[in-house]
Amino acid sequence: MSEIITSKENPAVKHAARLLKSAKFRRQEEAFLAEGVRLCRDAAYSGVRILRMFYTEEALERYPKDVELLREKAERAFLLSQQLAGGLSATVTPQGIFCVCAMLDKTDCLDKMDASGQLLGLEDIQDPSNLGTVLRTAEALGIGGVILTRGCCDIYSPKVLRGSMGAVFRLPMALVETMPPAVNALEQKGFVTMAAVPDREAEPITQVLFSSPSIVLVGNEGNGLKPETIRACQRRVTIPMLGRAESLNASVAASLLMWEMMRASGEAAL
Amino acid sequence: MSEIITSKENPAVKHAARLLKSAKFRRQEEAFLAEGVRLCRDAAYSGVRILRMFYTEEALERYPKDVELLREKAERAFLLSQQLAGGLSATVTPQGIFCVCAMLDKTDCLDKMDASGQLLGLEDIQDPSNLGTVLRTAEALGIGGVILTRGCCDIYSPKVLRGSMGAVFRLPMALVETMPPAVNALEQKGFVTMAAVPDREAEPITQVLFSSPSIVLVGNEGNGLKPETIRACQRRVTIPMLGRAESLNASVAASLLMWEMMRASGEAAL
């Protein structure tokens, strides 16, 4: 049973469009918009609460099972025209399936992180494509969880959700105001805390003996980690480089760090 | 001495704007548009022939030395208004410096590749951000050269140039029609040829003993390497994965492969 929407002035459509565009509105509503069959299905299977679901006639024809599943999971479902669907889309060729989802509780959950695992810390990562890629890689490599500062771009932005391939729904994540208190708390729990820095004097990541549990912290694309965050960490590690480029892209650097961490940890069986 | 452009109908501006937007026009003219202080300077220092240079009054004030250098290197220089500069820009906040550059000769130069080095092969990579990131990483990690199929997106597109951080100007690259003949030619030269595949039966990249010279090939984002390219290679290698994600982003996968290749090769001293 779906309600039918014919006007772009419909409050549910306007609400969803605002969730698409404004990080502030997402925070205020504690909700976000997921787009596309795959991402919506990922949300549903990850136990994300689906408040509203929107779909087009065309989507129902192309993806009948997925629309059915999502209609069942959603508290309310709406049928809308292709044209209205365009207004909810961040892509060039919308599939015509959208879900308004309740944000997951990512705050204050350092305690929920795997106490024996390998974690990643991200300080003030600005680019949504970078953040999405890093989260996708973290999941692919089996990272136990990610700690992000509130200075990072919004994990519920369309680009991050899409780039992460749904990892946002599944990865344990904690949002913290600033990094140093989190680093200190993890150290108390027995984590080895490591700051990634572009400094040839730091320990090459290839020579670090990663013991579990540990965390590697990666900083902002332009400025790197804050001095106080570097000071809060027990060790400073770096990616040795051979070529001429000044540095690696932030998502590649984070990926190589995670790779070395997982490669070196006994569980990895790489 | 610069000519002053006041109209957007000026043929030099229209020509540059077409180079920005059309890969076909770039190929036809054998030229491309580089934007921004850093990229234009990289082009100049890399021996790229600068046919025309455009700058704004504001750019001259902010970057006097760079404008001076580029004016000297360029065959013709033009001063233009901020507004006209906006029309040549692929960025939100243009710096007001642009160079029309002659394409480098990247064809038919398998012979120019380091015969004792580690190479990367890219087949039909579609996303310009991925390609730019991969080229940047290749340079940062000291890869000897990159072989690309013509099915890859244009290396002179604004996104690839920017994402590569100028690596396009410096990395030895060869553009080939299809991969199998290039693979065969490299094998003849003594290269070990390896196809990267998402297949748990293939050799884990962490256990490969890379001998120099060698090449790893990476395929299209959606479809991977073509079957005939995989067959042309001597070995099949894969990135072992631990988490739940189906796969890694193409630029991250290529980065991890290059990293392992350089890490394992004796010269690396990682």
Automatic annotation (TrEMBL), chains A, B:
Keywords, alphabetical: Methyltransferase, Transferase
Organism placement in taxonomy: Bacteria, Bacillati, Bacillota, Clostridia, Eubacteriales
Entry's EC annotation: 2.1.1.-
GO annotation, cellular component aspect: cytoplasm
GO aspect biological process, one term: methylation
Domain annotation RNA 2-O ribose methyltransferase substrate binding: ranges: 33-107
InterPro entries xref list: Alpha/beta_knot_MTases, MRM3-like_sub_bind, Ribosomal_eL30-like_sf, rRNA_Methyltransferase, SpoU_MeTrfase, SpoU_subst-bd, tRNA_m1G_MTases_N
Family indicated by similarity: Belongs to the class IV-like SAM-binding methyltransferase superfamily. RNA methyltransferase TrmH family.
Organism: [Clostridium] leptum DSM 753
Entry protein name: RNA methyltransferase
Keyword Transferase carried by entry: yes
UniProt-recorded Gene Ontology molecular function terms: RNA binding; RNA methyltransferase activity
NAD in keyword set: no
